[in-house]
Amino acid sequence: MIAEAGLAALWFAAALALLQLVLVAMGLTGRKDELLAAVRPVAVAQGLLTALAFAALVTLFLRSDMSVLLVVTNSHSMKPWLYKFAGTWGNHEGSMLLWVTVMGVAGAAVALFERALRRDTHMATLGAQAAISLGFYAFLLFSSNPFARISPAPADGQGLNPLLQDPGLAFHPPTLYLGYVGLSVAFSFAVGALLTRRVDSAFARAMRPWVLAAWVLLTLGITAGSYWAYYELGWGGWWFWDPVENASLMPWLAATALLHSVTVLATRDALRAWTVMLAVVAFSMSMVGTFLVRSGILTSVHAFAVDPERGSFILALLAIYIGGALALFGWRIGTVREGEPFELVSRETMLVVNNLLLSVILGLVLVGTLYPLLTEAFGHKVSVGAPYFDRIAGPIALGLMVAMAAGPLMRWRRDSAAAAGRRLLVPAAVLIVAAVVVGLLAWGRIGILPYLGLVIALATAVASVTPLWRRSLRRTPLFTWGMVIAHLGCAVSLAGMASDSAFTVEKLVAARPGDVIETAGWRLRFVQILPRAGDNWTALQADVEASRGGGSPTMLHPQARFFASPPTPTTEAALLTRWDGQLYVVLGQEADAGRWQMRIWWKPFVTLIWLGGFLIALGGALALVGRERRGWVLKWRARRAVA
Amino acid sequence: MRLLFAILLLLAPVPLLAQTALPPAPYADRQIDDPALERKARTLMETIRCLTCQSQSIADSNASMAGDMRSQIRERIMAGEQPEQIRAWLISRYGDWVSYEPTAAPILWPLWAAPVLLLFAGLILMRGRIGKRRRP
């Protein structure tokens, strides 16, 4: 009954999306206000219905209803409830339903809250949103029905991939999807503005909070995903340049560029066509990402819900939306008036440089990710991995960091080169001092990229807080704080990356209980190894006592786990976090009688990578609140005045 | 009861582990004593694809074939071979697919040219935008 109700809700929502599109099209072309008046309630109803369908699927998973095919193939009654709940989207159908739900709810939010926008642009935006949703409804209903029944119902399900049985699953996919959908809203705004010829700063101000929110969520999602892969896969790496990782990075790069250019458009009314173009690219990249991840066309360690046939459906959707958007862009871009001018030495120029470098990195990641497909078509299998991306994108990213450090110290529109130079004096001095000091300490021991990374991280950290110099900190606007914190986060993250690749110490041993292992100033005593059991797994657990410099020891418990359904071995690394790094211990297989393989890493300052990611997201959130708070307060006052 | 269940389940994976009945690869999980050589080997291993995995380097894989390849690489490094010689040997054996570092084969020229082309295209786009004064 619940499954059928969910399916019905989904069909109704799809019908409402069609209605919404027709209403907007007829209302705008025929100038019929009575039709347009119905659009907002329809969008809200559609959002509620998708939420209902999603709630139905969650209920089915929580109840372990084994008459539903999706629950059978992806769940098990003995699983902890958190993974029953999060398992709802740990599979293809469920994750697409989550996507559609988020999209429906976001559409309702646009209908309810974006009334400051001109009415026709607002309506065209909702029409575009309905058009995008329709494709995804079709995809769900015709090729990936999450509510399909199975008869006869089996006694129990097949379980969830053990790698996914982690609190990260509850957080990471929904965050990324919210981000992707936020970009789809930005895309709808761009389409709406193009259709109604309203590409101006008012449009940019309406779009900006959506871009900012999407960007914050993407940042959090990628940061969390990176940390999850780092501790779950048990190999101490945090970024592999795997196709799925690249798929999540590309929308983030596009969103970062869009975020900066939409700010230029909102504050200075420049970069109009470019901002619209970036909105199209950002959404395209989230579609390309979904396609790459869902189709399984490229092999990946992180692909868990893959189906090649459905890939072609997404590819068709991709072609229709991107092709349509680019056609509209080409057709209407001539009507977009030129924005406000600016001079070579100005903050706008630095933001254009930022956009250029981000776009080049985005292009390289896209080319590098898809290139193996291209050569395979010619019968030549190649791999494009970390050596390519590090070597090619790494230096460009370092250049981007320099632009990021210098940009906020420039004035809008026009600046004198001498004055800008004076403001850059302190960061430049830090850069030189850091280059000499790091060079003296570590030259010859570390590679050129980690070296440059450390030096530039130090200099940009100083430069990113320089905009606060000689300002009253209490009167500095919240969005300036946001920018400073986000930029500082980039420097912090870069420092962590450089430090990890430069100074990590690895130790592989085959140890028996009682052995003492010394590495990187740590002393590890292998105490014992014992079997353990959880709800749906059993494990061998090693007890390892770690201490440093005569301090009090800490007990670590790395495990080699074995999950029963589906039968899979996994490793549970033990991590010990200290202010200056992380100790990472993995229990491997039995080497020979009584001796066990162990991998031990000391990773100096590796945690800065994710701390930086968190700071970036925090900065984005502060900027969002700072920019929008005034609007909220005004709206609230207006509403009170009416009441 | 739980413990009994645990012990029963622990017996289950035994046949899986017994699959590696081949002579063990001595340096699969054992480091070279000389840290400089080990660093060389490690750097190379990080750029060699594990052929039986889903997109992982042999440095990051538990697969037995990855272990064999790690052992091969460490042994060859200790025998004095250079990393690029070993890479070439692996490529001749398994094809370009095995190296995460794209080779200089003609089919890969566009890939290596991509950064220059993209930067150039970007600069041309930018040139028209900057330094314009408001027209009278």
Looking at this protein, list some descriptive labels.
heterodimer; A: 643 residues; alpha+beta; six-stranded antiparallel beta sheet; four-stranded antiparallel beta sheet; B: 136 residues; mainly alpha; Helicase, Ruva Protein, domain 3; 6 helices; Cytochrome C assembly protein (chain A); transmembrane helix (chain A); CcmF_C (chain A); cell inner membrane (chain A); cell membrane (chain A)
CATH superfamily of the domain at 22-102 in chain B: Cytochrome C biogenesis protein
> What is the rounded distance between the termini of chain A?
43 Å
Tell me the strand percentage band of chain B.
under 5%
Low-confidence stretches of chain B: 7-21
Rg of chain B, Cα atoms, Å:
24 Å
What order do the SSEs of chain B take from the amino end to the carboxyl end, as H and E?
HHHHHH
Q: How many individual β-strands of chain B?
A: 0
What share of the residues of chain A lie within helices? 55-70%
Provide the structure class of chain B: mainly alpha
Question: Strand-and-helix sequence of chain A, N→C?
Answer: HHHHHHHHHHHHHHHHHHEEEEEEEEEEH
Q: Count up the helices of chain B.
A: 6
Beta-strand portion of chain A reads 5-15%
The most extensive contact between chains is: A-B, 62 and 54 residues
Q: What is the count of β-strands of chain A?
A: 10
Mean pLDDT of chain A: 87
Described by strand count, sense and barrel closure, the largest sheet of chain A is: 6 strands, antiparallel
Alpha-beta classification of chain A: alpha+beta
CATH architecture of the domain at 22-102 in chain B: Orthogonal Bundle
